[in-house]
Amino acid sequence: MSMAGNLRKVTGLGKVGGLRKVARLARRRVRVDLSHPARSPLGSAVVNCVTYQDGVRVPDGRDLVETVERVRKSDDGFVWLGLHEPTSQEFAGIAELFDLHPLAVEDAVEAHQRPKLERYGDTLFAVFKTVCYVDHQELTATSEVVNTGEIMVFIGPSFVITVRHGRHGSLGPLREELEADPQQLAKGPAAVLHAIADHVVDDYLNVTDAVQEDIDQVETDVFAENGARVDPGRIYQLKRELLELKRAVAPLDRPIQELATRPIRVIDPEIQAYFRDVSDHLLRATEQIAAFDELLNSILQAHLAQVSVAQNEDMRRITAWAALIAVPTMVTGVYGMNFEYMPELHWSFGYPLVLVVIGVACLVLYRGFKRNGWL
């Protein structure tokens, strides 16, 4: 039985031909992209299953169980199995074959985990939050800016199992880059773990750069001439999306520090130096997110101050116009009381004189308000 056929038996997948496509894709080295809504272009949770020896891809055709046993005994290669949103039934056989801990298996199937690093004997289980920037023509109060997913990685002395959740973060291009560098891939499963961590953190930096453009646009709009009219919902939406990005990035600091500094059996000391570089990039992303959060707070406070100033200006204008209207209202109110004996009531120039007095009083008030900036 071929490796693809045996993998169908191990995972319990019954879709005819689905795993034969795995073998064909492995032989043809076709790039696998899972960015579309389907769970997998292969019709199952299995994305790919490849064996590497000395950093070189081994042609498919062996029985999976025999291949795993041979790799374990010879200690000259490893198996890389890629899965996309597997069910517990699909993952059960794989967990038994590779002797994975039930708690880690449950986390890998259920997803929605925080970034973390756990050790179960000789097996290392890592969780990474993937992020991608959602393009939009104009930022609104309901725009989705950041979309998140997850990559779980099991690594042992002779295997790498990646479990991906979400519609982005395909590892196909990453696999091709690693295969183009056999010397690095020959360092074993730890090299794959480093490549995944580096790939995820680089995406963090790309997303923060894109989010910065949105923040710059909002800042420009707020401090424009009509900044008080900017919808504050845009600022709140950016803060919510930034919080989601922070939840993906910040918790990863401790796992990366462990990989970079603490001795771990399945991590080659040479690879730990690479993890220190990943840690530096992660620190940069974390600092950028913290700076963005502070900047958005300042932008929001400035916007609220602008709204308050605009409201004060409106109230001054309303008060000034009310004062102007009060003068003729008062005069006409007095002469509307219909008393028989009133000054100038029977004088032929009385009416024009009152109009002139009203006009002069209103003009004096208008010039005074205008000079003080109330109008």
Automatic annotation (TrEMBL):
Record carries keyword Heme: no
Compartment(s): Cell membrane; Membrane
Q: Which InterPro entries match?
A: CorA_cytoplasmic_dom (IPR045861), CorA_TM1_TM2 (IPR045863), Mg/Co-transport_prot_CorA (IPR004488), MgTranspt_CorA/ZnTranspt_ZntB (IPR002523)
Which spans are transmembrane here? 318-337, 349-369
> SUPFAM superfamilies from the xrefs?
CorA soluble domain-like, Magnesium transport protein CorA, transmembrane region
What topology in the membrane does the UniProt record assign?
Answer: Multi-pass membrane protein
Question: What broad class describes the main subcellular location of this protein?
Answer: membrane
Q: Write down the Pfam families for this protein, in alphabetical order.
A: CorA
NCBIfam families listed in its UniProt record = corA (TIGR00383)
Q: What biological function has been recorded for the protein in this entry?
A: Mediates influx of magnesium ions.
The similarity comment for this entry is: Belongs to the CorA metal ion transporter (MIT) (TC 1.A.35) family.
Q: What is this protein called?
A: Magnesium transport protein CorA
Q: Which organism is it from?
A: Streptomyces yaanensis
